[in-house]
Amino acid sequence: MNILFLCTANLNRSKTAELHFAAKDPANAYRSAGLSEKECRRNGTTLCTEALLEWADVVFVMEDAHVRRIEQYTAQRFLNKIINLDIPDIYSFGDAALIEQLELSYNAKQRG
């Protein structure tokens, strides 16, 4: 399965999720990106593209604003793939508390 994690700048939440779950579960392919062109350009991180959204079987976002941003640019095309993990932007890259939140939210959302 191809799993895409998205946050605003691809610095902390989505990048941590990609690396954590890729190491933990190599049976799936994981990628991450940011949804703010300004922030991704400023930080030299990966910006989400329609090609990435097409590649993904499941897209995990961190907040409602991320769902709205995808919808703004792609209409309803990818909404059926999106799952909101509801993780606020208060963590640093690799933060143990962030990994704990990712695990809790990811596992809860995977179960349905």
Model description:
The model has no long low-confidence stretch (mean pLDDT 95). The protein is an alpha/beta fold. Helix content is 46%, strand content 17%. The chain has helices spanning 13-24, 37-43, 50-55, 64-74, 96-111; strands at 2-7, 29-34, 58-61, 82-84. It has a 4-stranded parallel sheet with strand order 2-1-3-4. The protein has 5 helices and 4 strands. The two termini are 17 Å apart. The chain is globular. The chain has a single domain, classed as Rossmann fold.
Using the coordinates shown, work out and report the CATH topology: Rossmann fold
Work out the count of structural domains.
1
Q: Helix amount, in percent?
A: 40-55%
CATH class: Alpha Beta
The named CATH superfamily = Response regulator
Largest sheet report: 4 strands, parallel
From the spread of the alpha carbons, the general shape counts as globular
Provide the spatial order of strands within the biggest beta sheet.
Answer: 2-1-3-4
How many helical elements? 5
Overall pLDDT metric: 95
Write the layout of secondary structure elements.
Layout (H helix, E strand, L loop, with lengths): L1 E6 L5 H12 L4 E6 L2 H7 L6 H6 L2 E4 L2 H11 L7 E3 L11 H16 L1
Summarize this structure briefly:
With 112 residues, the protein is an alpha/beta fold.
Task: Please describe the structure with a list of short key phrases separated by commas or semicolons.
single chain, alpha/beta
